[in-house]
Design a protein that fits this description.
By secondary structure, the chain is an alpha/beta fold. It contains two helices and five strands; from the N terminus they run ββββαβα. Strand 1 and strand 2 form a beta hairpin. The two termini are 25 Å apart.
Amino acid sequence: MPTLTTADGTELAYHVTGEGEPLLCLPGGPMRASAYLGDLGGLPRRRQLVMLDLRGTGDSSVPGDPATYRCDRQVDDVETLRKHLGRDSVDILAHSAGGDLAILYAARCTRSTSVPSV
């Protein structure tokens, strides 16, 4: 299982399945690991799924500062993963509460000249 370390030192895990263009998958619901998404109906036959375990879920570490569980604070985690994957941009699939994180990330990308749009 691959991992990355965020700016505040929290280690995040992500799981990769399939081949093709990467699709970053953000789980929903409070404290739900990405494993519940399964194979998203066979999507790995067409795309490489990069399924992020958010802070304190699944194989990711519990952050030192509980305030970083806030959705708006996890936007940096998505950006860190994009950079870690070496991508200029990413396609994102989000489920339930993960949609809030995806929207905040997209809004940040469209406001910033240093971060490409998703």
